[in-house]
Amino acid sequence: MRISVIGCGYLGAVHAACMAKLGHDVVGIDVDHGKVARLSEGKAPFYEPELDALLTELEESGRLSFTTGMEAAGGCEVHFICVGTPQKRGENAADLRFVDAAVAELAGFLSPGDVVAGKSTVPVGTAERLAEVIAARQPAAALLWNPEFLREGHAVDDTLRPDRFVYGVPDGNEDHPAVAVLDEVYRTALSAGTLRLIMDYPTAELVKTAANSFLATKISFINAMAEVCEATGADVTRLADAIGMDERIGRKFLNAGIGFGGGCLPKDIRAFMARAGELGADQALTFLREVDAINMRRRTRVVELTRELCGGILLGQRIAVLGAAFKPESDDVRDSPALSAAAQLQLQGAVVTVTDPQALDNAAKRFPELPMEPDLETALTRADAVLLLTEWKLYRELDPYSTKSLVSSARVLDGRNVLDPAKWRAAGWTYRGLGRP
Ligand code: UDX
């Protein structure tokens, strides 16, 4: 099929490459010339395992190209809307400028029978409104809402092998002709048994925000338990193991630590609260405010614990911060809890050095005053305390003995509860985890 993907950020670049991998002819369209130039050279504008190789392979095959011109969508039959919906400046609500602009421009290039599939995360009610914009220009084109659930760091696999497809169709009509078109796009995964659920627009839009809110709630729940564990001397990691064995609860997303960040969970729960307020249903989501507050408290807790580790004074203490990305296998520093804690420590007088295998360029753009050091050993040298804040494999596998020979004082704060406390203590370290005795 001939497919256009509008918006080539995280979601769009991965989606475009994966659709080409499935055998379709794909054009990725983005207003950012720099991004299009990089993608056209087979390079993703962000770090995502597997993606560069996939881009190169598919561009060489002739099935994938990138452009800044929306007219390229004119020759396509399916159009995916993948532009960003960031948080509005100074407000909780989502900024829909990019979605509105993309759909308005695309509408001028649609032909009868075309299918537009919205993938961006939007407030409930958006699809209905966009469908009217499309109908006004091309009444014989259809809009489906087709949210995605990809995780950064696993984006290619999550797109090629999702655990479910969600199609939001007008009035939830399962026989809508656009359903068969989208089925054809996803034929490989559907024939391998991936389930697809058909529903109306608002339900499909809500699936995405509800899923992210649930994940955020799960993380904040265990972080709240970590607070209680800290007050009682209990161990939150053992608690999570034990409650996670109940299938109804599950162990995934029960890792207590410095909390969630990134370009999705924090902004999505805030936009969801804002939208519920507009709809007069704000009471239903007031708990998300608490979820957000628990999450933000973790960052302050890192600062408090570091102060304790350093004997009560941060001023002049050399702190090695391991990790800048909001999670491993990513160079994304949007709302990164690691960087936020590092910046707070610096403000309180600590001499902070941040290291990360992938995210330092992005981190330096966001926090130009924070010293960054690409070499792990150099970052650790003469440190008064080591903070593991993003659980990259190379940090999880650090050897406590050789690391000790580099630092000034053997004190470690395990912000993700991924180190073995017994091993580190045996090597002579003062070990602190979050929610662990
Ligand atoms: C998330 C959703 O998982 C994905 O389905 C959606 O499409 C986009 O948003 P992503 O932002 O890539 O994906 O990250 P995710 O893996 O969900 O992690 C989010 C944050 O939660 C990270 O900062 C991570 O470190 C943190 N986290 C995750 C925890 O603190 N504890 C956990 O147990 C799990």
Task: Outline the structure in words.
The strands form 3 sheets. Strands 3-2-1-4-5-6 form a 6-stranded parallel β-sheet, with helices on both faces. Strands 10-9-11-12-13 form a 5-stranded parallel β-sheet. It has a two-stranded parallel ribbon with strand order 7-8. With 437 residues, it is an alpha/beta fold. The protein has helices spanning 10-21, 33-40, 51-61, 97-107, 126-137, 155-160, 177-185, 187-191, 201-232, 236-244, 265-278, 286-309, 337-347, 360-366, 376-380, 393-396, 400-404, 421-426; strands spanning 2-6, 25-29, 64-67, 78-81, 115-118, 142-145, 165-169, 196-200, 318-322, 351-355, 385-388, 411-414, 430-433. Strand 5 (115-118), helix 5 and strand 6 form a beta-alpha-beta unit. The mean pLDDT is 97. Uridine-5'-diphosphate-xylopyranose binds next to helix 9. The site of uridine-5'-diphosphate-xylopyranose has 19 residues, from helix 9.
